Amino acid sequence: MSGNPVFEGWYADPEGAVFGDEYWIYRTYSDDYGEPDRSAEFSEKQLALQQNTINPKYLKQTFSNAFSSQDLVNWTKHSHVLDIKNVKWAAYSVWAPAIVQANDRYYLFFEANDI
Predict the structure, then answer these.
(1) How many separate domains does the chain show?
(2) What family does the entry list (predicted)?
(3) Containing domain of residue 106, as a range?
(4) Which of 12, 83, 94, 112 is deepest in the core (most CB within 10 A)?
(5) How confident is the model at residue 98 (pLDDT cuts 50, 70, 90)?
């Protein structure tokens, strides 16, 4: 029994997927829990766009983590599988990640910036 929640942290919007013999969960980083986690790089444009946020907590949501397991009990955290340093148009509030596999590729899609 893994317990509840499956992994520590303040996450939302879970997306589950099975690839081969591994289970994956992609989550929205909602807020700090224990040691704060942050994106480290921002472009000048992203820093300017961050001034438009309506909620300061959205400035923490600049990445997504993923978790993988082969047995649904033991999980491995994959930090920052998506980070806005790699997405020029996103500045804050990265949320609701989802993934599909097609044509021998993986496609991760998500929402970003204010609603």
Answers:
(1) 1
(2) Belongs to the glycosyl hydrolase 43 family.
(3) 10-111
(4) 94
(5) very high
